[in-house]
């Protein structure tokens, strides 16, 4: 009976036929990465990494995990199956976020302390370029066609556009105060950029480099200075954007056509980032102060589960588990 109840509970949490995934979460204060199994929504293991891990992403084949160890001044390459460090990549000072180009090997890394974007070939472990951008760069994104990269500079309050062919900065777009995260739409036509202190999200037309919409947020009972947008996840169907609103402890759901807020979802304390699982049915948030991860159901726009991880979880990346199907999946 206990087993049956457990099985039914897991089946309700996972969509029918969904593949199991692993969610990797960087814990800033513990210098670790926690791994969550989406079939059970439990932490299955935790392994040590460099100091103050923040951004993280996977290689295309899922066999390498890249971690920005900010205070170690390195991008670490880790075997996700064992948690063992394979090697460090040269990254420049204080790497915070990075983006892997569609070619699967070129990493664009934002270096907060020296106002540059470092470009590294992950296969040869060579620095291809260091590009001057604005002061305190953090957000980093590469367009779906691989032709453009962008860096957001927190102090300069700009988005810097980089030609990936020449590895030169070519343009800059002013946005709100302290831009933190950048996300291209799947068609590459628009760029979404959060401004933490400005309390807004800018939507930029990529062709013209101009802001076409500035989205503000209002939450009943929450003062404006606690609404601090950081992470953004765009839904697979392109209809919604999920925006982490920092110490307001909410995620805003924005209609990408009307730019209107559809819902605010209460999650853990000091939400940093949002990551969507493949298929779009579930999202996860990293909640720094409460030290947990919230699972969001995209259909009902509700938080359905909280999972304790390490101290001050910051970033999240999702990897499919090859050959594994979640409980309740069709055979």
UniProtKB/TrEMBL annotation:
Residues 1-20 form the signal peptide. It comes from the Bacteria. Residues 19-85 form the YNCE-like beta-propeller domain. It holds the Pfam family Lactonase. Keywords: Signal. PANTHER family: DIHYDRO-HEME D1 DEHYDROGENASE (PTHR47197:SF3), PROTEIN NIRF (PTHR47197). NCBIfam families: beta_rpt_yvtn, PQQ_ABC_repeats. This is PQQ-dependent catabolism-associated beta-propeller protein.
């Amino acid at each position: 009976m206990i087993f049956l109840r457990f099985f039914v509970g897991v089946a309700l949490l996972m969509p029918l036929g969904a593949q199991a995934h692993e969610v990797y979460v960087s814990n800033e204060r513990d210098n670790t990465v926690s791994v969550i199994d989406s079939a059970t929504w439990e932490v299955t293991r935790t392994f040590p990494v460099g100091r103050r891990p923040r951004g993280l992403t996977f290689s295309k084949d899922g066999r390498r995990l890249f971690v920005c160890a900010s205070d170690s001044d390195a991008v670490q390459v880790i075997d996700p199956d064992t948690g063992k460090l394979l090697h460090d990549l040269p990254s420049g000072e204080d790497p915070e976020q990075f983006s892997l180009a569609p070619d699967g090997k070129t990493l664009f890394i934002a270096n907060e302390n020296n106002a540059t974007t470092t470009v590294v070939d992950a296969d040869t472990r060579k620095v291809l370029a260091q590009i001057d951008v604005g002061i305190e760069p953090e957000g980093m994104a590469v367009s779906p066609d691989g032709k453009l990269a962008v860096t957001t500079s927190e102090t300069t309050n700009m988005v810097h556009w980089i030609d990936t062919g020449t590895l030169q900065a070519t343009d800059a777009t002013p946005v709100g105060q302290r831009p933190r995260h950048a996300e291209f739409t799947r068609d590459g036509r628009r760029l979404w950029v959060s401004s933490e202190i400005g309390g807004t999200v800018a939507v930029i037309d990529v062709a013209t480099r101009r802001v076409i919409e500035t989205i503000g947020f209002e939450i009943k009972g929450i003062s404006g200075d606690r609404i601090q947008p950081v992470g953004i996840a765009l839904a697979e169907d392109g209809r919604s954007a999920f925006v982490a609103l920092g110490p307001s402890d909410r995620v805003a759901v924005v209609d990408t056509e009307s730019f209107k807020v559809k819902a605010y979802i209460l999650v853990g304390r000091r939400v940093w980032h949002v990551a969507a699982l493949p298929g779009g049915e579930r999202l996860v948030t990293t909640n720094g102060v409460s030290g947990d991860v919230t699972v969001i159901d995209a259909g009902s726009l509700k938080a359905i589960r909280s999972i304790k991880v390490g101290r001050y979880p910051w970033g999240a990346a999702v990897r499919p588990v090859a050959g594994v199907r979640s409980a309740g999946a069709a055979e």
